[in-house]
Structure formats: C-alpha cells, structure tokens
Amino acid sequence: MSELSVNHLLGIKYVTKEDIDLIFETADHFKEVINRPIKKVPSLRDITIANLFFENSTRTRLSFELAEKRLSADVINFSAASSSVKKGETLIDTVNNILSMKVDMVVMRHPNPGAGVFLSRHVDASIVNAGDGAHEHPTQALLDSYSIREKLGEVQGKKVVIVGDILHSRVALSNIFALKLQGAEVKVCGPKTLIPKYIEKLGVVVETDLKKALEWCDVANMLRVQNERMEISYFPSTREYTQQFGVSKELLESLNKEIVIMHPGPINRGVEITSDVADSNQAIILDQVQNGVAVRMAVIYLLASKIKQ
Ligand code: CP
User: Fold this and answer.
1) Ligand 1 centre from 56 Cα, in Å?
2) pLDDT tens-digit map of 249-303
3) Residue 154 CB neighbour total at 10 angstroms
4) Per the count of CB atoms within 10 A, which of 52, 97, 286, 305 is most buried?
5) Confidence at residue 261, expressed as pLDDT on a 0 to 100 scale
6) Nearest atom in ligand 1 to 58's CA
7) What is the distance of C-alpha 86 from the center of its chain?
8) Which residue, among 175, 138, 170, 150, has the nearest Cα to 160 in the 3D structure?
9) Domains of the chain
C-alpha cells in the first residue's frame, strides 16, 4: 500500500493497520533525514499548513511546526488566546477565513471532543487532530507505538499497561485503538473512579493493583492526572494517589524484570512518576518526543500526497 485510506487524521479509530504500517515506514525514512546535517527535504514546498491551537501545548505544537518546516511547507500558527475567537468568532468562520488565504491543511487542537470530525465535514481542507478534549490524540498514539517498535522490535504481542487518569485521557483512548490494531495486549491501571465503565468493551483488561500490572507488562505508559478536566475529586489526596499509582525506582527494582517506561508529557514529577525514574535509562520519554517529529512528518507528507492528486 502506498497511500493512506483516509484524507484526514481525525483519530486512530478511523485508520487501518495498513495505514499505521505505512506511516511507520515513511517515518523511518524521515527519521534518517532529520539525523542528516541538512535536516530538510523539499517535498511540501507547494503546501501551506495552519496550526490551530485552542488549548495549551508544548510538545505537539512545536513538533508539528518542526515537522512541517522540515518538509519545506509554508506554516502559519494560530493561538486562540490571542485571536478573534475572543471576540465571539465561530470555529467554522475562523477556519474558513484562514483557508481563504489558500491554506491546504489544518492541524488543530481543541478542548471539545469531536471538533476535528466536525471541522472535516464543514471545511475544504485536510484536517489533522492534534488532540480533541478527552477523545483522541492520534499522533501521540502513533509516536508511542513507533517508540515501542523502535525499543522492542515490534508492537505485536507486547504487553502494555496504561496507568493513571484513563477517564480524561485522549492519549489512553488513541493508544488503546493503536495498540489493539497492531496486536498488543493492553491493560489499564488506576483508581476505579478514573477508569471509564465502557473500557473493557475496547478489549482491554482493568487491573487496580499497580505492582501486579507492572509484573505483567513489557511497557508502562504513565499518564498525568488531568486536574484541569476535573470538576470533582476522584481520589482522596495526591499523596494517596502517588502511593498507589505512582512509579518509583524502588517499585521498579522490586520487579523480576526491567520494563520500559513511557510518558506522553507533561510530567508531574513526584506524582505519577519520580524524577529518578523519569530520568533513568528505563524511560524513553525524550525518545518519544524525538520520534514525534518523524512520525508527524510522515502523517503530513502522506495526507499532503492525497491533496496533490
Ligand atoms: N503530549 C502532549 O500532547 O503534550 P503537549 O500537551 O505539550 O502538546
């Protein structure tokens, strides 16, 4: 297969295993490119991309912008906080105004679940979801699987536990879809109050004992507690959360094997992960960030190839 089955990347729910394989093969090529002295290719000189961020971001926004620039696309950046959204302009009006400047692709982060799907039905551009509320974060899941593949050779058959605030996490949902598509076994672990009731229908197993989950897995993906999405308390205290669901060096050393530690960032050091674990050789957190550029180059390149047809 040489092209994606989709015209937008709205979620992992909408792509196939073949799409993921193609994105990873293309990312392998771009990873080699960005390790050259000249880190740029002219592939997308004729494409203009708008990065629309309606929610805060460090890694995703910079990674997309760098990926686009490495492909030689023209790039414009929009931050809702400093835009006319503050004067009451709607999402569709905002995007249509941006598209009238001859923009071909929109990368969007938005607090509302489904914002990317909604936009793809109402505007004439290729849409990439850079995170929509607690729904999906497809490029994060792709770079996570790509990093597992790089570290352990393949994703198929690997045992991955996703730990923490599953309820509010778009990273968890996209990772579950991506890992299951590739034949990994997936468990989720966290306080019962932060695990959605439907989760087992997605083919994952719930484990509330962190030590048991870590004994079982090859990879633990540690998630941040998303206090900004919570209107009530889901656990008694941060101290108690850390005691039950935080990963420390002592806990890792008590296991019978060495597991891989991942985190999508931003990290709350001392809450879900201690500093000595985050900075250890077991953690591939900065590899994930580095791989994000190559994976996003692949996604943008493959979607742009479909625009050009
Ligand atoms: N992983 C992630 O989405 O980080 P940012 O919120 O900084 O983009």
Assistant:
1) 8
2) 999 999 989 999 999 999 999 999 999 999 999 999 999 999 999 999 999 999 9
3) 12
4) 52
5) 98
6) 7
7) 27
8) 175
9) 12-136+291-307 (3.40.50.1370), 138-288 (3.40.50.1370)
